[in-house]
Amino acid sequence: MKDGVIEDPRQCRFDPSVLLCKEAESNTCLTAPQLAALKKLYAGSTNSKGQRVFPGYSPGGEADPAGWLPWITGPAPEKSALFAFGTQFFMNMVFDNPDWQFRTFDIDRDTKAADDKMAGILNSNNPDLTAFRDRGGKLIVYHGWSDAAIPPQNAIDYVDSVSARMGAGAVDGFLRLYMVPGMQHCGGGAGVTGFVGQIPTGDRFHDADAALEAWVEQSQPPAQIIATKYDSAGAVVRTRPLCPYPSVATYKGTGSTDDAANFTCVKPH
Questions:
Q1: Cα three-residue angle 191-74-193, rounded to 5 degrees
Q2: Most buried residue, 18, 28, 215, 236, by CB count within 10 Å?
């Protein structure tokens, strides 16, 4: 099914090498250094021992408005305030040094410095949510597959770590993850992104806030959540189910691909 949105970028077999310039450099191709940089963005960061520090970015939303341009591929970091995640954090919170230069960054030394100083304040990666579960807590996590600020694989890695620590059966009783195809950082993008605070009726089948409320107060766990894409006038363009991870929305083969009723949530084999 071709609708301009990648349902699960992990299934993509895109090789960016096809973009290598075969003749003179132009805006329609990538030079060898540019291609190497792009592959590193997709692969994620590793330390000097080859251990992954953080996952890479997913293919699919690079050229969308407010996609990669303001976060990754815009002006050089020293000329743009939009790269604050990669410059201001270390400058102002880790090293307290307004003259710190990102080009001096050492992934072993400076990642450790950041963890030593800030992990206890900022990190939300504890896989043991036993206390939260035992007091009746419910958690709905969502992440856009086209997020160019925080790699979406990070959300999957965290939920997988909770399942590994507490058991998949136990986690299913209090935690749901919804990966949103085509959604950028916190919202926007080519996909169906209207499911948080944008639904007039506010029902639990279309609104994540209402779904969480029903789960906590009425013991009604959410299954799929129907997300909506609107045009600039507020009219509905498309609906599509968001499936609880690891399930993905799969077209039934008949009917409009803009109608959520023609999709079902299927777990990968």
A1: 15
A2: 215
